[in-house]
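The instructor's notes for this session suggest beginning with a concrete chain rather than abstract definitions. Hand out the sequence below and ask the class to guess, before any prediction is shown, which regions might be ordered.
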Amino acid sequence: MKTNFSKRFMVPLAVIILGGAGAFATTSMSTNKAVEERMGYRYLSEQEPCHEENECSTVNNNVICTSTVGSHQLFDQQSPNSCDVPLYKIQN
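After discussion, reveal the predicted structure:
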């Protein structure tokens, strides 16, 4: 009886454990991507010191992130009036 009980519930238990581990791993991967990708900003004027441009990365790959128009270097926005942390181009 004990052997029959073990065989009957071990496979579903293993599936539940592996499913939970897979869900945790998938969530961890998407969280890392969110941390690495940020909106890039550039200085436009005193009235709009941080103008939103396009997506960049926080991972230093030695290729700076630039705007699509004018090739201005883009930065991370630390506060509404401060955009001074360099960002890098997203690698595909």
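Then share the key points. The longest helix spans residues 2-36. The mean pLDDT is 80.
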